[in-house]
Amino acid sequence: MSNNRKFARRTDSSRQQRVPPKLNVENKGLKDESLAALEDLVICSICLEKLNEPRMLPCQHTFCLSCLKTLITAKNLVKTGLKLDLSNELKDIHCPVCKKEFKLNNRIESLEDLPKNFQAETILKLLEDNTNTPSTANKVVDYRCVKCQTVSENEGDHVCQHCLQVFCSICWINHISELDTNLSLLINQIEESRTRLAHKAQSFGGRCDQLVDAIKQSIEQKIAKIKKMEENVLLEMAAIKEQGNVLHDMINARVNAVKEKVEGIIKDSKQSNKISNYMNVHRETAKLFDEIYQYGEARIVFDADKIRIDQDKEGIYQDINDKDNLRTEKVDNPFESVTSMVKYYKSRTFVPRLLWTKCPRPGGVGIAPWDPSKIYVAATDTNNILVLDRSKFKLIKKINNPEMLCPTNLAFSKKYEEMFVTDKWKHCVHVFSCDGDYMKNFNGLGLKSPDGIAVGPNEEVVICDTGNNRVIAIDAESGALLYTIGKRELHIPTSVAIHGEKIFVADTGNNRIKMFNKDGLLLQEIGAFGRNKGEFRSAEVVAVDCLGFILVGDAGNARIQVFQPDGKLIKIFGSSEGFGWISGIHVTPELDIICTDSRKRSLRIF
Asked: Any idea where the RING-type domain is (predicted)?
Protein backbone atom coordinates (compact mmCIF):
# COMPACT_ATOMS: atom_id res chain seq x y z
CA MET A 1 0.00 0.00 0.00
CA SER A 2 1.64 3.32 -1.14
CA ASN A 3 2.08 6.33 1.16
CA ASN A 4 -0.04 8.48 -1.15
CA ARG A 5 -2.86 5.97 -0.90
CA LYS A 6 -2.46 5.73 2.90
CA PHE A 7 -2.91 9.44 3.56
CA ALA A 8 -5.20 10.35 0.69
CA ARG A 9 -8.81 11.07 1.58
CA ARG A 10 -11.65 10.37 -0.71
CA THR A 11 -13.06 13.75 -1.60
CA ASP A 12 -14.68 12.96 -4.90
CA SER A 13 -18.36 13.19 -4.00
CA SER A 14 -19.35 12.23 -7.52
CA ARG A 15 -17.98 8.72 -7.11
CA GLN A 16 -20.30 6.06 -5.95
CA GLN A 17 -19.20 5.27 -2.38
CA ARG A 18 -19.05 1.69 -1.23
CA VAL A 19 -19.02 0.76 2.44
CA PRO A 20 -19.21 -2.60 4.26
CA PRO A 21 -22.77 -3.83 4.62
CA LYS A 22 -22.64 -3.66 8.39
CA LEU A 23 -21.45 -0.03 8.37
CA ASN A 24 -23.51 1.30 5.55
CA VAL A 25 -25.92 3.33 7.67
CA GLU A 26 -27.08 5.55 4.83
CA ASN A 27 -27.92 2.66 2.45
CA LYS A 28 -30.01 1.03 5.21
CA GLY A 29 -31.85 4.25 5.80
CA LEU A 30 -31.83 4.17 9.57
CA LYS A 31 -34.92 5.80 10.96
CA ASP A 32 -35.13 7.92 14.07
CA GLU A 33 -36.50 5.04 16.10
CA SER A 34 -33.59 2.87 15.04
CA LEU A 35 -31.16 5.50 16.28
CA ALA A 36 -33.09 5.71 19.52
CA ALA A 37 -32.81 1.96 19.93
CA LEU A 38 -29.06 2.17 19.38
CA GLU A 39 -28.79 4.97 21.92
CA ASP A 40 -30.45 2.74 24.53
CA LEU A 41 -27.63 0.23 24.05
CA VAL A 42 -24.94 2.75 25.00
CA ILE A 43 -26.57 4.33 28.06
CA CYS A 44 -24.62 3.98 31.31
CA SER A 45 -26.83 2.48 34.05
CA ILE A 46 -25.13 4.67 36.67
CA CYS A 47 -25.22 8.19 35.20
CA LEU A 48 -27.96 7.45 32.63
CA GLU A 49 -25.92 9.28 29.97
CA LYS A 50 -24.07 7.99 26.92
CA LEU A 51 -21.10 5.86 27.79
CA ASN A 52 -17.77 7.63 28.18
CA GLU A 53 -14.72 5.38 28.08
CA PRO A 54 -16.88 2.27 28.37
CA ARG A 55 -15.44 -0.50 30.54
CA MET A 56 -16.91 -3.99 30.68
CA LEU A 57 -17.14 -5.94 33.96
CA PRO A 58 -16.67 -9.76 33.90
CA CYS A 59 -20.46 -10.11 33.97
CA GLN A 60 -20.51 -8.33 30.54
CA HIS A 61 -22.31 -5.20 31.87
CA THR A 62 -20.70 -1.96 30.65
CA PHE A 63 -20.36 1.41 32.45
CA CYS A 64 -18.42 4.66 32.16
CA LEU A 65 -14.94 4.35 33.64
CA SER A 66 -15.43 7.56 35.60
CA CYS A 67 -18.81 6.34 36.90
CA LEU A 68 -17.24 3.12 38.18
CA LYS A 69 -14.51 5.06 39.95
CA THR A 70 -17.01 7.48 41.47
CA LEU A 71 -19.28 4.64 42.59
CA ILE A 72 -16.56 2.59 44.26
CA THR A 73 -15.06 5.69 45.85
CA ALA A 74 -18.41 6.79 47.30
CA LYS A 75 -19.07 3.37 48.79
CA ASN A 76 -15.64 2.97 50.36
CA LEU A 77 -14.97 6.36 51.95
CA VAL A 78 -13.99 6.35 55.62
CA LYS A 79 -13.60 9.28 57.96
CA THR A 80 -10.16 9.70 59.52
CA GLY A 81 -10.10 12.73 61.71
CA LEU A 82 -11.41 15.65 59.68
CA LYS A 83 -10.65 14.04 56.32
CA LEU A 84 -12.32 11.43 54.14
CA ASP A 85 -10.02 8.74 52.75
CA LEU A 86 -10.50 5.65 50.68
CA SER A 87 -10.90 2.53 52.81
CA ASN A 88 -8.03 0.07 53.00
CA GLU A 89 -10.61 -2.73 52.87
CA LEU A 90 -11.37 -1.97 49.22
CA LYS A 91 -10.97 -5.37 47.60
CA ASP A 92 -14.02 -5.94 45.43
CA ILE A 93 -16.78 -4.31 43.42
CA HIS A 94 -20.44 -5.25 42.98
CA CYS A 95 -22.03 -4.84 39.56
CA PRO A 96 -24.76 -2.15 39.89
CA VAL A 97 -27.04 -4.20 37.61
CA CYS A 98 -26.73 -7.88 38.57
CA LYS A 99 -25.03 -7.36 42.00
CA LYS A 100 -22.34 -9.93 41.22
CA GLU A 101 -19.11 -9.47 43.16
CA PHE A 102 -15.70 -9.15 41.47
CA LYS A 103 -12.24 -8.91 43.02
CA LEU A 104 -10.06 -5.81 42.63
CA ASN A 105 -6.49 -7.04 42.93
CA ASN A 106 -5.02 -3.54 42.56
CA ARG A 107 -7.74 -1.59 44.37
CA ILE A 108 -9.31 1.23 42.35
CA GLU A 109 -6.52 1.14 39.75
CA SER A 110 -7.85 -2.25 38.68
CA LEU A 111 -10.69 -0.44 36.92
CA GLU A 112 -8.21 0.86 34.33
CA ASP A 113 -7.40 -2.73 33.40
CA LEU A 114 -11.00 -3.65 32.65
CA PRO A 115 -11.52 -4.47 28.94
CA LYS A 116 -13.10 -1.92 26.65
CA ASN A 117 -16.45 -2.65 25.06
CA PHE A 118 -15.59 -2.27 21.39
CA GLN A 119 -19.16 -2.80 20.29
CA ALA A 120 -20.33 0.06 22.50
CA GLU A 121 -17.53 2.29 21.17
CA THR A 122 -18.56 1.48 17.61
CA ILE A 123 -22.20 2.35 18.30
CA LEU A 124 -21.11 5.60 19.99
CA LYS A 125 -19.00 6.52 16.99
CA LEU A 126 -21.84 5.62 14.64
CA LEU A 127 -24.24 7.83 16.57
CA GLU A 128 -21.67 10.63 16.72
CA ASP A 129 -21.09 10.46 12.97
CA ASN A 130 -24.83 10.47 12.34
CA THR A 131 -25.25 13.54 14.56
CA ASN A 132 -22.38 15.46 12.99
CA THR A 133 -23.55 14.74 9.41
CA PRO A 134 -26.07 17.43 8.38
CA SER A 135 -27.16 15.68 5.20
CA THR A 136 -26.89 12.14 4.00
CA ALA A 137 -27.09 13.13 0.38
CA ASN A 138 -23.69 14.79 0.19
CA LYS A 139 -21.83 12.57 2.67
CA VAL A 140 -18.46 11.26 1.69
CA VAL A 141 -17.56 7.95 3.30
CA ASP A 142 -13.98 6.91 3.83
CA TYR A 143 -12.55 3.63 5.00
CA ARG A 144 -10.35 4.67 7.89
CA CYS A 145 -8.67 2.41 10.42
CA VAL A 146 -10.11 3.13 13.84
CA LYS A 147 -6.65 2.94 15.40
CA CYS A 148 -4.18 4.71 13.11
CA GLN A 149 -6.72 6.56 10.94
CA THR A 150 -5.10 5.07 7.80
CA VAL A 151 -7.41 5.41 4.79
CA SER A 152 -7.93 2.43 2.51
CA GLU A 153 -9.21 2.46 -1.04
CA ASN A 154 -10.81 -0.90 -0.48
CA GLU A 155 -13.92 -1.46 1.58
CA GLY A 156 -11.73 -1.64 4.65
CA ASP A 157 -8.86 -4.08 4.88
CA HIS A 158 -10.42 -5.88 7.79
CA VAL A 159 -13.87 -5.51 9.39
CA CYS A 160 -14.21 -7.12 12.83
CA GLN A 161 -17.45 -9.09 13.12
CA HIS A 162 -17.30 -8.73 16.91
CA CYS A 163 -16.96 -4.98 17.36
CA LEU A 164 -18.03 -3.94 13.80
CA GLN A 165 -14.93 -1.74 13.34
CA VAL A 166 -12.50 -1.27 10.41
CA PHE A 167 -8.80 -2.00 10.84
CA CYS A 168 -5.81 -1.79 8.58
CA SER A 169 -3.65 -4.86 8.17
CA ILE A 170 -1.13 -3.77 10.79
CA CYS A 171 -3.68 -2.76 13.41
CA TRP A 172 -5.71 -5.86 12.67
CA ILE A 173 -2.88 -8.02 14.06
CA ASN A 174 -2.84 -5.99 17.27
CA HIS A 175 -6.63 -6.17 17.50
CA ILE A 176 -6.57 -9.95 17.15
CA SER A 177 -3.92 -10.12 19.87
CA GLU A 178 -6.11 -7.97 22.09
CA LEU A 179 -9.03 -10.32 21.49
CA ASP A 180 -6.79 -13.26 22.41
CA THR A 181 -5.93 -11.47 25.64
CA ASN A 182 -9.63 -10.98 26.34
CA LEU A 183 -10.21 -14.68 25.69
CA SER A 184 -7.47 -15.55 28.15
CA LEU A 185 -9.10 -13.28 30.71
CA LEU A 186 -12.41 -14.96 29.96
CA ILE A 187 -10.86 -18.38 30.60
CA ASN A 188 -9.53 -17.14 33.93
CA GLN A 189 -12.97 -15.81 34.81
CA ILE A 190 -14.54 -19.14 33.89
CA GLU A 191 -12.10 -21.00 36.12
CA GLU A 192 -12.74 -18.54 38.95
CA SER A 193 -16.47 -19.04 38.45
CA ARG A 194 -16.01 -22.81 38.60
CA THR A 195 -14.12 -22.47 41.89
CA ARG A 196 -16.73 -20.07 43.23
CA LEU A 197 -19.51 -22.50 42.22
CA ALA A 198 -17.74 -25.35 44.02
CA HIS A 199 -17.38 -23.25 47.18
CA LYS A 200 -21.03 -22.23 47.02
CA ALA A 201 -22.14 -25.83 46.52
CA GLN A 202 -20.03 -26.88 49.50
CA SER A 203 -21.47 -24.06 51.60
CA PHE A 204 -25.03 -24.85 50.50
CA GLY A 205 -24.56 -28.55 51.28
CA GLY A 206 -23.17 -27.66 54.69
CA ARG A 207 -26.18 -25.47 55.48
CA CYS A 208 -28.54 -28.25 54.38
CA ASP A 209 -26.71 -30.75 56.59
CA GLN A 210 -26.96 -28.34 59.53
CA LEU A 211 -30.70 -27.99 58.94
CA VAL A 212 -31.11 -31.77 58.76
CA ASP A 213 -29.32 -32.11 62.10
CA ALA A 214 -31.44 -29.33 63.61
CA ILE A 215 -34.66 -30.96 62.35
CA LYS A 216 -33.67 -34.35 63.73
CA GLN A 217 -32.69 -32.84 67.07
CA SER A 218 -35.93 -30.87 67.32
CA ILE A 219 -38.07 -33.88 66.41
CA GLU A 220 -36.18 -36.08 68.86
CA GLN A 221 -36.81 -33.53 71.61
CA LYS A 222 -40.49 -33.38 70.78
CA ILE A 223 -40.74 -37.18 70.66
CA ALA A 224 -38.97 -37.40 74.02
CA LYS A 225 -41.38 -34.83 75.45
CA ILE A 226 -44.39 -36.71 74.08
CA LYS A 227 -42.96 -39.99 75.38
CA LYS A 228 -42.63 -38.41 78.81
CA MET A 229 -46.22 -37.19 78.64
CA GLU A 230 -47.28 -40.68 77.54
CA GLU A 231 -45.43 -42.19 80.49
CA ASN A 232 -47.12 -39.80 82.92
CA VAL A 233 -50.58 -40.43 81.46
CA LEU A 234 -50.09 -44.20 81.53
CA LEU A 235 -48.93 -44.03 85.15
CA GLU A 236 -51.96 -41.94 86.01
CA MET A 237 -54.20 -44.38 84.16
CA ALA A 238 -52.61 -47.34 85.94
CA ALA A 239 -53.17 -45.62 89.28
CA ILE A 240 -56.83 -45.02 88.43
CA LYS A 241 -57.24 -48.64 87.37
CA GLU A 242 -55.53 -49.91 90.52
CA GLN A 243 -57.73 -47.68 92.64
CA GLY A 244 -60.77 -49.13 90.88
CA ASN A 245 -59.55 -52.67 91.50
CA VAL A 246 -59.02 -51.98 95.21
CA LEU A 247 -62.47 -50.44 95.46
CA HIS A 248 -63.92 -53.44 93.62
CA ASP A 249 -62.30 -55.86 96.05
CA MET A 250 -63.63 -53.88 99.02
CA ILE A 251 -67.18 -53.81 97.66
CA ASN A 252 -66.98 -57.48 96.71
CA ALA A 253 -65.86 -58.35 100.25
CA ARG A 254 -68.80 -56.40 101.63
CA VAL A 255 -71.12 -58.24 99.25
CA ASN A 256 -69.88 -61.56 100.62
CA ALA A 257 -70.19 -60.32 104.19
CA VAL A 258 -73.75 -59.07 103.69
CA LYS A 259 -74.69 -62.31 101.96
CA GLU A 260 -73.35 -64.35 104.89
CA LYS A 261 -75.19 -62.09 107.32
CA VAL A 262 -78.47 -62.56 105.45
CA GLU A 263 -77.95 -66.32 105.33
CA GLY A 264 -77.22 -66.27 109.08
CA ILE A 265 -80.44 -64.41 109.79
CA ILE A 266 -82.36 -66.95 107.74
CA LYS A 267 -80.83 -69.83 109.73
CA ASP A 268 -81.34 -68.07 113.08
CA SER A 269 -84.21 -69.79 114.86
CA LYS A 270 -84.75 -66.99 117.33
CA GLN A 271 -87.75 -64.92 116.37
CA SER A 272 -87.13 -62.01 118.75
CA ASN A 273 -84.30 -60.43 116.79
CA LYS A 274 -85.57 -61.30 113.32
CA ILE A 275 -87.20 -57.93 112.63
CA SER A 276 -84.37 -55.73 113.91
CA ASN A 277 -81.77 -57.82 112.11
CA TYR A 278 -83.81 -57.68 108.91
CA MET A 279 -84.06 -53.88 109.11
CA ASN A 280 -80.33 -53.51 109.73
CA VAL A 281 -79.46 -55.81 106.87
CA HIS A 282 -81.94 -54.05 104.60
CA ARG A 283 -80.32 -50.67 105.28
CA GLU A 284 -76.85 -52.11 104.76
CA THR A 285 -77.94 -53.80 101.54
CA ALA A 286 -79.49 -50.60 100.19
CA LYS A 287 -76.25 -48.73 100.90
CA LEU A 288 -74.28 -51.51 99.25
CA PHE A 289 -76.48 -51.41 96.15
CA ASP A 290 -75.93 -47.66 95.88
CA GLU A 291 -72.16 -48.13 96.07
CA ILE A 292 -72.33 -50.80 93.38
CA TYR A 293 -74.36 -48.43 91.21
CA GLN A 294 -71.83 -45.63 91.66
CA TYR A 295 -68.85 -47.91 90.98
CA GLY A 296 -67.32 -47.30 87.56
CA GLU A 297 -69.60 -44.35 86.77
CA ALA A 298 -66.77 -41.80 86.63
CA ARG A 299 -66.12 -41.17 82.92
CA ILE A 300 -62.44 -41.02 82.04
CA VAL A 301 -61.88 -38.71 79.06
CA PHE A 302 -58.61 -38.53 77.15
CA ASP A 303 -57.67 -35.15 75.67
CA ALA A 304 -55.57 -36.17 72.66
CA ASP A 305 -54.53 -32.58 71.87
CA LYS A 306 -52.99 -31.94 75.30
CA ILE A 307 -52.23 -35.61 76.08
CA ARG A 308 -53.94 -35.73 79.43
CA ILE A 309 -56.79 -37.52 81.15
CA ASP A 310 -59.77 -35.87 82.74
CA GLN A 311 -62.25 -37.65 84.97
CA ASP A 312 -65.65 -36.16 84.30
CA LYS A 313 -67.61 -35.43 87.40
CA GLU A 314 -71.13 -34.24 87.80
CA GLY A 315 -71.51 -30.58 86.88
CA ILE A 316 -74.31 -28.04 86.73
CA TYR A 317 -74.75 -25.68 83.83
CA GLN A 318 -76.96 -22.70 84.66
CA ASP A 319 -78.40 -20.76 81.76
CA ILE A 320 -80.62 -18.38 83.75
CA ASN A 321 -78.29 -15.38 83.33
CA ASP A 322 -76.96 -16.35 79.96
CA LYS A 323 -77.09 -13.38 77.58
CA ASP A 324 -77.99 -15.74 74.77
CA ASN A 325 -81.26 -16.49 76.55
CA LEU A 326 -82.56 -12.92 76.30
CA ARG A 327 -85.84 -13.04 74.45
CA THR A 328 -85.93 -11.77 70.93
CA GLU A 329 -88.95 -11.09 68.78
CA LYS A 330 -91.63 -13.75 68.83
CA VAL A 331 -91.44 -16.31 66.04
CA ASP A 332 -94.84 -17.31 64.66
CA ASN A 333 -93.60 -20.04 62.33
CA PRO A 334 -90.13 -21.43 63.17
CA PHE A 335 -90.39 -23.96 60.33
CA GLU A 336 -90.47 -21.21 57.71
CA SER A 337 -86.68 -20.98 57.27
CA VAL A 338 -83.36 -21.55 58.97
CA THR A 339 -83.36 -17.90 60.07
CA SER A 340 -86.74 -18.20 61.75
CA MET A 341 -85.63 -21.42 63.48
CA VAL A 342 -82.51 -19.66 64.78
CA LYS A 343 -84.70 -16.92 66.26
CA TYR A 344 -86.97 -19.56 67.76
CA TYR A 345 -84.15 -21.39 69.55
CA LYS A 346 -82.64 -18.13 70.79
CA SER A 347 -85.98 -16.93 72.15
CA ARG A 348 -86.69 -20.08 74.20
CA THR A 349 -85.79 -20.20 77.89
CA PHE A 350 -85.78 -24.02 78.00
CA VAL A 351 -87.32 -24.45 81.41
CA PRO A 352 -88.45 -28.10 81.73
CA ARG A 353 -92.22 -28.29 81.75
CA LEU A 354 -92.11 -31.87 82.99
CA LEU A 355 -89.63 -33.75 85.18
CA TRP A 356 -89.87 -37.47 85.95
CA THR A 357 -87.42 -38.73 88.57
CA LYS A 358 -88.48 -42.37 88.78
CA CYS A 359 -86.62 -43.56 85.70
CA PRO A 360 -84.20 -46.45 86.50
CA ARG A 361 -80.95 -45.29 84.89
CA PRO A 362 -82.36 -44.35 81.47
CA GLY A 363 -80.45 -44.64 78.22
CA GLY A 364 -81.88 -43.70 74.83
CA VAL A 365 -85.34 -42.22 74.37
CA GLY A 366 -87.69 -41.99 71.38
CA ILE A 367 -91.24 -41.86 70.05
CA ALA A 368 -92.58 -44.57 67.73
CA PRO A 369 -93.80 -43.22 64.37
CA TRP A 370 -96.87 -45.48 64.48
CA ASP A 371 -98.03 -44.09 67.85
CA PRO A 372 -96.81 -40.56 68.75
CA SER A 373 -98.76 -40.66 72.03
CA LYS A 374 -96.14 -42.92 73.67
CA ILE A 375 -92.56 -42.32 74.83
CA TYR A 376 -90.13 -45.24 74.84
CA VAL A 377 -87.18 -45.23 77.26
CA ALA A 378 -84.35 -47.78 77.49
CA ALA A 379 -83.99 -48.65 81.20
CA THR A 380 -80.50 -50.09 81.52
CA ASP A 381 -80.76 -51.11 85.20
CA THR A 382 -84.00 -53.08 84.92
CA ASN A 383 -83.19 -54.58 81.49
CA ASN A 384 -86.41 -53.44 79.84
CA ILE A 385 -88.01 -50.76 77.70
CA LEU A 386 -90.39 -48.41 79.53
CA VAL A 387 -93.46 -47.17 77.66
CA LEU A 388 -94.96 -43.90 78.97
CA ASP A 389 -98.23 -42.22 78.09
CA ARG A 390 -97.15 -38.88 76.67
CA SER A 391 -100.26 -36.92 77.69
CA LYS A 392 -100.73 -38.34 81.20
CA PHE A 393 -97.03 -39.10 81.65
CA LYS A 394 -97.81 -42.40 83.24
CA LEU A 395 -95.97 -45.71 82.92
CA ILE A 396 -98.27 -47.98 80.93
CA LYS A 397 -96.04 -50.86 79.83
CA LYS A 398 -92.67 -52.58 80.16
CA ILE A 399 -91.12 -54.45 77.25
CA ASN A 400 -88.53 -57.06 78.15
CA ASN A 401 -87.11 -60.43 77.25
CA PRO A 402 -84.62 -62.81 78.90
CA GLU A 403 -82.33 -62.34 75.90
CA MET A 404 -81.94 -58.64 76.69
CA LEU A 405 -79.20 -57.87 79.25
CA CYS A 406 -78.50 -54.13 78.99
CA PRO A 407 -80.75 -52.15 76.60
CA THR A 408 -78.86 -48.97 75.78
CA ASN A 409 -80.52 -47.19 72.86
CA LEU A 410 -83.47 -47.61 70.54
CA ALA A 411 -84.77 -46.67 67.10
CA PHE A 412 -87.94 -47.32 65.06
CA SER A 413 -88.73 -48.45 61.52
CA LYS A 414 -91.87 -46.79 60.17
CA LYS A 415 -92.10 -49.15 57.20
CA TYR A 416 -91.84 -52.42 59.16
CA GLU A 417 -93.31 -51.04 62.42
CA GLU A 418 -90.45 -52.53 64.41
CA MET A 419 -88.27 -51.33 67.28
CA PHE A 420 -84.52 -51.93 67.27
CA VAL A 421 -82.68 -51.97 70.62
CA THR A 422 -78.90 -52.09 71.12
CA ASP A 423 -77.64 -54.35 73.91
CA LYS A 424 -74.26 -53.21 75.26
CA TRP A 425 -73.60 -56.35 77.29
CA LYS A 426 -74.85 -58.94 74.82
CA HIS A 427 -73.19 -57.12 71.88
CA CYS A 428 -76.16 -57.38 69.55
CA VAL A 429 -79.33 -55.64 68.33
CA HIS A 430 -82.75 -56.91 69.46
CA VAL A 431 -85.85 -56.49 67.29
CA PHE A 432 -89.38 -56.05 68.75
CA SER A 433 -92.72 -55.69 66.99
CA CYS A 434 -94.92 -52.63 67.42
CA ASP A 435 -96.84 -54.58 70.08
CA GLY A 436 -93.67 -55.26 72.07
CA ASP A 437 -93.25 -58.90 71.03
CA TYR A 438 -89.70 -60.16 70.74
CA MET A 439 -88.93 -61.14 67.14
CA LYS A 440 -85.19 -61.75 66.66
CA ASN A 441 -81.74 -60.33 67.18
CA PHE A 442 -78.76 -59.51 64.97
CA ASN A 443 -75.77 -61.04 66.72
CA GLY A 444 -73.53 -62.07 63.83
CA LEU A 445 -72.18 -58.62 63.03
CA GLY A 446 -69.11 -58.67 65.28
CA LEU A 447 -70.51 -55.82 67.36
CA LYS A 448 -68.72 -54.77 70.53
CA SER A 449 -70.70 -52.76 73.11
CA PRO A 450 -73.08 -51.14 70.57
CA ASP A 451 -74.69 -47.91 71.71
CA GLY A 452 -76.40 -45.32 69.48
CA ILE A 453 -78.82 -46.46 66.78
CA ALA A 454 -80.96 -44.80 64.10
CA VAL A 455 -83.03 -45.73 61.04
CA GLY A 456 -82.18 -44.06 57.74
CA PRO A 457 -84.47 -42.79 54.97
CA ASN A 458 -84.14 -46.11 53.12
CA GLU A 459 -85.03 -48.08 56.27
CA GLU A 460 -81.41 -49.11 56.83
CA VAL A 461 -80.45 -49.52 60.50
CA VAL A 462 -77.37 -47.46 61.43
CA ILE A 463 -75.51 -48.63 64.55
CA CYS A 464 -72.69 -47.13 66.63
CA ASP A 465 -70.31 -50.07 67.09
CA THR A 466 -68.65 -48.33 70.02
CA GLY A 467 -66.08 -50.96 70.96
CA ASN A 468 -64.87 -51.28 67.36
CA ASN A 469 -64.70 -47.50 66.77
CA ARG A 470 -66.96 -47.54 63.74
CA VAL A 471 -70.53 -47.00 62.53
CA ILE A 472 -72.22 -49.67 60.42
CA ALA A 473 -75.48 -49.86 58.48
CA ILE A 474 -77.43 -53.10 58.11
CA ASP A 475 -80.54 -54.23 56.27
CA ALA A 476 -83.58 -53.99 58.56
CA GLU A 477 -84.92 -57.40 57.50
CA SER A 478 -81.91 -59.62 56.96
CA GLY A 479 -79.30 -57.86 59.07
CA ALA A 480 -76.85 -57.93 56.15
CA LEU A 481 -74.05 -55.39 56.33
CA LEU A 482 -74.60 -52.50 53.90
CA TYR A 483 -71.73 -50.11 54.59
CA THR A 484 -69.22 -49.03 57.23
CA ILE A 485 -68.01 -45.51 58.04
CA GLY A 486 -65.52 -43.89 60.39
CA LYS A 487 -62.95 -46.66 60.72
CA ARG A 488 -60.13 -44.12 60.90
CA GLU A 489 -61.98 -41.02 62.05
CA LEU A 490 -63.94 -42.27 65.07
CA HIS A 491 -62.98 -43.12 68.63
CA ILE A 492 -65.72 -44.41 70.95
CA PRO A 493 -68.80 -43.33 68.91
CA THR A 494 -71.82 -43.34 71.23
CA SER A 495 -74.71 -41.78 69.31
CA VAL A 496 -75.93 -41.38 65.74
CA ALA A 497 -78.61 -39.29 64.03
CA ILE A 498 -79.65 -39.02 60.38
CA HIS A 499 -80.99 -36.05 58.42
CA GLY A 500 -81.42 -36.48 54.69
CA GLU A 501 -78.21 -37.94 53.28
CA LYS A 502 -76.06 -36.85 56.25
CA ILE A 503 -75.08 -39.12 59.13
CA PHE A 504 -74.25 -37.31 62.39
CA VAL A 505 -72.04 -39.20 64.86
CA ALA A 506 -71.18 -38.29 68.45
CA ASP A 507 -67.45 -39.05 68.44
CA THR A 508 -67.14 -39.13 72.22
CA GLY A 509 -63.49 -40.17 72.39
CA ASN A 510 -62.47 -37.19 70.25
CA ASN A 511 -65.03 -34.81 71.82
CA ARG A 512 -66.51 -33.89 68.45
CA ILE A 513 -69.62 -34.25 66.33
CA LYS A 514 -68.75 -35.55 62.87
CA MET A 515 -70.90 -35.54 59.73
CA PHE A 516 -70.48 -38.22 57.05
CA ASN A 517 -72.19 -39.21 53.84
CA LYS A 518 -73.07 -42.83 53.09
CA ASP A 519 -69.79 -43.31 51.25
CA GLY A 520 -67.95 -42.66 54.51
CA LEU A 521 -66.63 -39.25 53.45
CA LEU A 522 -66.16 -36.89 56.40
CA LEU A 523 -68.06 -33.74 55.44
CA GLN A 524 -67.75 -31.61 58.56
CA GLU A 525 -66.89 -31.73 62.24
CA ILE A 526 -67.67 -29.40 65.13
CA GLY A 527 -66.36 -29.05 68.65
CA ALA A 528 -63.17 -29.71 70.61
CA PHE A 529 -62.25 -30.72 74.14
CA GLY A 530 -63.03 -28.03 76.72
CA ARG A 531 -65.61 -26.14 78.72
CA ASN A 532 -66.04 -23.10 76.48
CA LYS A 533 -68.92 -22.49 74.09
CA GLY A 534 -68.87 -24.96 71.23
CA GLU A 535 -66.53 -27.31 73.12
CA PHE A 536 -67.39 -30.67 74.68
CA ARG A 537 -66.33 -32.88 77.56
CA SER A 538 -67.75 -36.18 76.37
CA ALA A 539 -70.19 -35.43 73.55
CA GLU A 540 -72.43 -38.34 74.56
CA VAL A 541 -75.60 -37.80 72.49
CA VAL A 542 -76.55 -36.17 69.18
CA ALA A 543 -80.01 -35.46 67.76
CA VAL A 544 -81.25 -33.53 64.71
CA ASP A 545 -84.53 -31.64 64.29
CA CYS A 546 -86.65 -31.42 61.14
CA LEU A 547 -84.60 -28.55 59.66
CA GLY A 548 -81.23 -30.12 60.37
CA PHE A 549 -80.38 -28.21 63.56
CA ILE A 550 -77.96 -30.26 65.68
CA LEU A 551 -78.54 -30.82 69.41
CA VAL A 552 -75.56 -32.21 71.34
CA GLY A 553 -75.74 -33.73 74.81
CA ASP A 554 -72.49 -32.37 76.27
CA ALA A 555 -72.60 -34.79 79.22
CA GLY A 556 -69.34 -33.83 80.94
CA ASN A 557 -70.31 -30.14 80.93
CA ALA A 558 -73.91 -30.95 81.99
CA ARG A 559 -75.53 -29.01 79.15
CA ILE A 560 -77.11 -29.23 75.72
CA GLN A 561 -75.66 -27.18 72.86
CA VAL A 562 -77.66 -26.32 69.74
CA PHE A 563 -75.94 -25.72 66.39
CA GLN A 564 -77.19 -24.54 63.01
CA PRO A 565 -76.92 -26.98 60.08
CA ASP A 566 -73.66 -25.26 59.09
CA GLY A 567 -72.17 -25.92 62.54
CA LYS A 568 -72.57 -22.43 64.03
CA LEU A 569 -73.45 -22.43 67.74
CA ILE A 570 -76.71 -20.62 68.53
CA LYS A 571 -77.82 -21.85 71.97
CA ILE A 572 -76.63 -23.49 75.19
CA PHE A 573 -78.99 -24.58 77.95
CA GLY A 574 -79.07 -26.74 81.05
CA SER A 575 -81.79 -26.67 83.70
CA SER A 576 -82.49 -25.07 87.04
CA GLU A 577 -81.82 -28.38 88.80
CA GLY A 578 -78.80 -29.21 86.65
CA PHE A 579 -78.08 -32.22 84.47
CA GLY A 580 -76.07 -35.13 85.83
CA TRP A 581 -75.15 -37.10 82.71
CA ILE A 582 -77.23 -36.64 79.55
CA SER A 583 -77.86 -40.09 78.08
CA GLY A 584 -80.61 -39.50 75.50
CA ILE A 585 -82.18 -36.71 73.40
CA HIS A 586 -85.22 -36.85 71.15
CA VAL A 587 -86.68 -33.87 69.25
CA THR A 588 -90.37 -34.17 68.34
CA PRO A 589 -91.93 -32.70 65.20
CA GLU A 590 -93.45 -30.04 67.49
CA LEU A 591 -89.90 -29.15 68.69
CA ASP A 592 -90.40 -30.60 72.16
CA ILE A 593 -87.02 -31.78 73.47
CA ILE A 594 -87.07 -34.97 75.56
CA CYS A 595 -83.88 -35.63 77.57
CA THR A 596 -82.87 -38.55 79.76
CA ASP A 597 -80.28 -38.31 82.54
CA SER A 598 -78.66 -41.60 83.56
CA ARG A 599 -76.85 -40.19 86.58
CA LYS A 600 -79.88 -38.45 88.08
CA ARG A 601 -82.23 -41.18 86.84
CA SER A 602 -84.61 -38.65 85.40
CA LEU A 603 -86.42 -37.59 82.25
CA ARG A 604 -87.12 -33.98 81.28
CA ILE A 605 -89.30 -32.49 78.58
CA PHE A 606 -88.48 -28.94 77.41
From this structure: 44-99
